[in-house]
């Protein structure tokens, strides 16, 4: 997880938030794997510039790879969206049933290091 934290600090100028959904939301046996859906957001103006968009896509892939290296996690879906294109449907896709923290503490706000 340290690699993910380092990446988030480094990428805060490009990636603004990360919305993970972990299924199942409750604790599982050590030999089982959680399935994780991840949505990452970036400012619209970042994604409108080809060089900045390429950097954001590279960062997205780097973060996905770091999540994949965590034991017990399987990334089943991930996408980079502009903040303007991120919808309520995307938010629901990253919220577990009964998760009152969705969109709040359940999200990861990225801050530059």
Describe the structure.
This protein is 35% helix and 25% strand. It is α+β, with helices and mostly antiparallel strands. It has a single domain (2-109), classed as Beta Polymerase, domain 2 (2-Layer Sandwich), CATH 3.30.460. Strands 3-2-1-4 form a four-stranded mixed β-sheet. Helix 1 (2-11) runs antiparallel to helix 3 (50-68).
Number of helices: 4
Low-confidence stretches: none
Number of strands: 4
Shape: globular
Number of domains: 1
Gross CATH architecture: 2-Layer Sandwich
Strand order of the largest sheet: 3-2-1-4
| Percentage of residues in DSSP E strands | 15-25%
Q: Which class best fits the helix and strand makeup?
A: alpha+beta
CATH class term? Alpha Beta
Please name the CATH topology. Answer: Beta Polymerase, domain 2
Give helix % range: 25-40%
Largest sheet: 4 strands, mixed
- Average of pLDDT: 77
Distance between the termini: 16 Å
Instruction: Write down the Rg.
Output: 14 Å
What order do the SSEs take from the amino end to the carboxyl end, as H and E? Answer: HEEHHEHE
């Amino acid at each position: 997880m340290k690699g993910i934290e380092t990446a988030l600090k480094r990428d805060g100028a490009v990636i603004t938030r990360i919305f993970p959904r972990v299924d199942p939301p409750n604790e599982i046996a050590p030999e089982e794997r959680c399935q994780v859906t991840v949505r990452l957001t970036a400012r619209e103006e970042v994604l409108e510039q080809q060089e900045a968009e390429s950097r954001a896509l590279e960062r997205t892939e780097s973060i996905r790879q770091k999540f994949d290296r965590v034991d017990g996690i399987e990334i089943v879906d991930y996408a980079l969206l502009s903040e303007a294109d991120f919808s309520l449907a995307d938010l629901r896709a990253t919220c577990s049933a009964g998760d009152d923290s969705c969109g709040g503490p359940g999200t990861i706000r990225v801050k530059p290091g």
